[in-house]
Amino acid sequence: MLRNVLGKTFRFLGYTVQYGCIAHCAFEYLGGVVVCSGPSMEPTIQNSDIVFSENLSRHFYCIRKGDIVIVKSPNDPKSNICKRVIGLEGDKVCTSNPSDFLKSHSYVPKGHVWLEGDNLRNSTDSRCYGPVPYGLIRGRICFKIWPLNDFGFLRASPNGHRFLDD
């Protein structure tokens, strides 16, 4: 009887570890569901919107300008942020706020991206903490899941004029 109970317990633990590893790999490498909070991506993503984030793009270096990404916060590594990619390595970006009279520009260094929120007046982004290392990108947001009336692919940036092509 003891052997039977131990056998069932070890079998259960074995299945738990196996399925736990499969789930970890799926969420780490394929993608997952993310609940967004804060006003920095409004009007594209509202507070408490639920989105799907795929993680394959970051592994294959397929992140492009205009993509919305989930990134480990440069200010707080325990939290993630959601921002739009404005510039890739080597791109010239406007580093000043939209309200600044004199505009300043800089180049994104190798291995980094320039991130900004769609709500430029209420976003802590690369204009505050500078270029972000590519390695901090966790995934790329594909589409919005919730609310259902807004289900689907995300719209283009309302700040498309901030993308510089030099």
UniProtKB/TrEMBL annotation:
Q: Name one GO biological process term.
A: signal peptide processing
Compartments annotated for it: namely: Mitochondrion inner membrane
Extract the InterPro entries matched here. Answer: LexA/Signal_pep-like_sf, Mito_IMP1_subunit, Pept_S26A_signal_pept_1, Peptidase_S26
Q: Does the record's keyword annotation contain rRNA processing?
A: no
The protein's GO terms of the molecular function aspect are: serine-type endopeptidase activity
UniProt keyword annotation of Methyltransferase present:
no
> Keywords for this entry?
Hydrolase, Membrane, Mitochondrion, Mitochondrion inner membrane, Protease
Q: Which domain of life is it from?
A: Eukaryota
Q: Which residues form the Peptidase S26 domain?
A: 16-97, 104-146
Record's Pfam families?
A: Peptidase_S26
Class in the EC hierarchy, top level = hydrolase
Q: Mainly localized where?
A: mitochondrion
Residues of the active site: S40, K83
- Return the EC number: 3.4.21.-
> Which is a Gene Ontology cellular component entry for this protein?
mitochondrial inner membrane peptidase complex
- Which NCBIfam families has this protein been placed in? sigpep_I_bact
Q: What is said about its interaction partners and assembly?
A: Heterodimer of 2 subunits, IMMPL1 and IMMPL2.
Stored PANTHER family? MITOCHONDRIAL INNER MEMBRANE PROTEASE SUBUNIT 1, PROTEASE FAMILY S26 MITOCHONDRIAL INNER MEMBRANE PROTEASE-RELATED
Say which family it is in.
Belongs to the peptidase S26 family. IMP1 subfamily.
| Protein's recorded name | Mitochondrial inner membrane protease subunit
Species source reads: Corythaixoides concolor
Lineage start: Eukaryota, Metazoa, Chordata, Craniata, Vertebrata
